Amino acid sequence: MPENLSASQARRIALAAQGFTRRRPEATVSARHMHRTMERLGVLQIDSVNVFARSHYLPLFSRLGSYDPAVLDRVFMSRTTHYVEYLAHEATFIPVDDWALWRFRMEDFRRRWDSPDSWTSQNVRTLAWVQDELRARGPLRPAELRADAPRERGTWWDWDEVKLALEHLWRTGDVAISGRRGFERVYALAEQVIPSEVRERDVPRQEAIRELVGCAARSHGVATAADLADYYRIRDRAAVRSSIDELVDGGELRPIEVRGWERAGRPVEAWLHRDAVLPRRVDAAAILTPFDPVVWFRERALRAFELDYRIEIYVPAAKRRYGYYSLPVLVDDRIVARIDLKADRASSTLQVQSAWWEPQSRAEDAERIAQELALAASWQGLENISVSGWGDAAETVAGALVVTHGRVLRHAHERE
To answer: What is the reported pTM?
Structure first.
């Protein structure tokens, strides 16, 4: 490994760490493939937006290609001992063995709500009743709790308070997610979900943060302190820096300079993980979710991939530049485009609502994008692909789709 890196080398290291140098399986994607991918990611962010596909399905599609979503549902959302949900980064699936690493965050939530005027202090009866019901009846959906909630003085036991109680108890680690039915969470007491040897593991705060920073460094390959803090949304920057120093002393990280990673004209401090590899090239094409670890931190996406990304779900329609839910597109080691996709189930059509080039795009990228769009349509069980005229890449991508897909519909896109 060289003593310093070019920006291109850093991108290749980062993509290798995220699994993009591994060939997609030729056989049917199995649970084993998903476990192997999660070993690299460490975390899989959950999101409810379902315009094309919910976000947590996309990172595995990006890396493994077409797979049966029911396999992911069984691996991540059934009652298993492999993964559990917690607020690592945002709401995410994490390995159940990592539960104890998050006790410091659970305790932070508990302390935050410890004041006499907090919601938890004022709703002790609700919290106790919810825990008693879960203890007696086992894992329950919120609706099942709501149906049996006692009615005292009209609105004392209303739906919002039961739901809030579950969410508070989940954040403090008293309750865990036992799985999902459809997309609805099933809640249970932590001891009903988390193995006792995991729950009883005592990990001091600094040790937990150091372990998480090490995991983030392995998943990034090469990273700045801000990158490492963001991977698991660790706000204690002093603890992150102390963890980096300890990992350097232990030989797990080493400082490195990345040419082009600068702030105010000066190189940004960066570190290389000891397991990082520098591939000669990255031969990949993938549609990414905005919540993929490759691009979810805006500062890193801009620095490493020249992607100035802002999700526009909450932007008024008239002010959107790229579309409601535009997805970055990776070709080799470059983010070359962003496309706004919608699965129109009624017409069995994958709608390309907009398509835009990024600064690192090349003329030959359109064919690779078209191939990924055809694969995405097949993965979602959609027979047709349509392309609107919105975006400077729309015409070129439509033309490439005619070659790869055989038939492309055109549709007028209105900014929703």
So the answer is: 0.92
